[in-house]
Amino acid sequence: MLSTAAGLAPSVWGSRGSVSALFLDKKALENLEEERLAVYAMKSRLATRHRTIRAEGRRHDYRLEFQRDRDRIIHSRAFRRLKHKTQVFVSTEGDHQRTRLTHTLEVAQIARTVCRALSLNEDLAEAIALGHDLGHTPFGHIGEEVLHGIMSAQDNLDGLLNFDGLGAPGGFKHNSQSLRVVEILERRYLEEGLNLTEETRFGILRHTSLPDDVTYHPFESERFRVGNPLFLEGQVVAVSDEIAQQAHDMEDGLRVGLVNLKTIERLDLMEEVIRRILPDYQATRRSFHRQNMLVRGTIHFLVTDLLLQTSKNIEAWTKQAEIRTTEDFFERLADIPSGLVAFSDKGRALFQKLKAFVYREIINSYQVNRMDGRAILFIRNLFKAYYTNPRQLQDWALLRYAHSRREPYLRDVPLPDVPAKIRALQREPDFLRLICDHIAGMSDRFAMEEFEKLCLPNASL
Predict the structure, then answer these.
(1) Residue 145: helix, strand or coil by DSSP?
(2) Reduced to 3 states, what is the DSSP secondary structure of residue 99?
(3) Closest Cα to residue 422, out of 436, 411, 438?
(4) Is residue 440 part of a domain?
(5) Neighbours of 209 (CB within 10 A)
(6) Phi, psi values for residue 99, rounded to 5°
(7) Which of 102, 269, 336, 460 sees the fewest Cβ atoms within 10 Å?
């Protein structure tokens, strides 16, 4: 079913859909989008949703479908919590290192730049970028690894969990969790979830690879299948995510002293960048200015290389597939090559060397590994505490579980029946998923506070 602003009053401004040059309604904006975007861009007028958007008293509609997705994500609680979630360096240990939120904003900025240059749909790319990490855990990627170990039955928490007869609960991956957040866990509206378009949801799910052992939240869509390649806007976000990660991890590593400027300058990619900015680079001796020049130059070099190569790839594919109109493109949507948005061979080689350097010198440093060690301790012990005594979970978490299962709220169970009820909960995969959802949604600060309260015997209550 094609998405419309069903339930909203139709335009009263005629076929142009505009009351004046300063006020364009949705129909006029769709027409402008059709004129401005390439035939291989996703179009808002063809977007699909599971449910109609409720009018809630609005008399006019002047937002496109993907713009509405972007707005719903920005106003979600999960998006706000990203400001207190680790990217690489724990968010509580410095003011200038990236958090999951600032990373997300940088991905969105790069994705919008690339899409505008390629005449792709910026609103869709931005919505995907802003939502791509909503399901990320506290403490960065190590939190994802810990929860996946538990939820894939690889870690039985020192014998506490017995998966015999229970089966693996489906694993954990942040992109699948991001989809779960926007479809189920957010509760801003009368129905569960944010009711985003299928296009945005698919882009969020597929912005990174899906391991075979992650099966807990299936994707349902009339238009897209999980195995289908991403449309171009989604591919742009996936590569923008990689560019942003390596550039800002390099900068953060410089700022905290894990690497120095002279070492960075010797990288093959930096030599390319310095050649291009040499007059300005030599004009200052201040390392702070030079660091910023290298970061800016790195992003510019990679984005430029991406645009030049992707343009060639798109031109060759549309010619080979005989795509001349939007209708032609949508007929071939399931046949888009997965690597259309890509670096050149040279650009890819330089980027891979940068990525290897960042991993070796920054991600794998003893400082980051120490923080990761603490994160493993926090998350495993929080999971143990909630599993051993579910009554330690917050009321809202237990209420959500009772409502979803249509069974009594744990705090209403008569005291003599509580031990049997807890044993029953411990045999339910859905209960393990509840704990996983709860921990995945935590900020770094909240996770550390919960660990202190539940796991340190000398801590104040």
Answers:
(1) helix
(2) strand
(3) 411
(4) yes
(5) 9
(6) -110, 175
(7) 460
Q: What is the full DSSP assignment across 240-287? A: HHHHHHHHHHHHHHHHHTSS-HHHHHTSHHHHHHHHHHHHHHHT---H
List the chain pLDDT tens, one digit each, 461 residues.
334 433 343 433 344 444 455 788 989 999 999 999 999 999 999 999 988 888 887 888 889 999 999 999 999 999 999 988 876 665 555 566 778 999 999 999 999 999 999 999 999 999 999 999 999 999 989 999 999 999 999 999 999 998 887 777 899 999 999 999 999 999 988 889 999 999 999 999 999 888 888 888 888 888 888 888 899 999 999 999 999 999 998 888 888 888 899 999 999 999 999 999 999 889 988 888 988 899 999 999 999 999 999 999 999 999 999 999 999 999 999 999 999 999 999 999 999 999 999 999 888 888 888 889 999 999 999 999 999 999 999 999 999 999 989 999 999 999 999 999 999 999 999 999 999 999 999 999 999 999 999 998 775 65
Measured CA to CA, the distance from residue 364 to residue 342 in angstroms comes to: 27
Rounded to 5°, the CA angle 132-133-138 comes to 175
pTM (predicted TM-score)? 0.91
Place of tokens 């509206």: 189
Distance of alpha carbon 149 from alpha carbon 144, whole angstroms: 9
Report how far residue 310's alpha carbon sits from residue 118's, in angstroms, rounded to the nearest whole number: 9
> What range does the domain containing 383 cover?
367-455
Rounded to an integer, what distance in angstroms lies between the CA atom of residue 186 and that of residue 460? Answer: 32
- Please check whether residue 410 lies inside any domain of the structure: yes
Q: Find, among 117, 77, 74, 23, the residue nearest to 441 by Cα.
A: 77
Distance CA 316, CA 75 (A): 40
Task: Report the half-sphere exposure of 96 (CA within 13 A, side-chain side).
Answer: 6
Helix (H/G/I), strand (E/B), else coil: 354: helix
What the block records as the tokens of 209 is 């690879």
Asked if residue 139 lies in contact with residue 447, where contact means CB atoms within 8 angstroms, the answer is yes
Is residue 6 in a domain?
A: no
Nearest to 365 by CA among 274, 253, 454: 253
- Asked, for residue 23, whether it belongs to a domain, the answer is no
CA–chain centroid gap for 372, Å, is 21
218 touches 170 (CB < 8 A): no
* Number of domains the chain is built from: 1
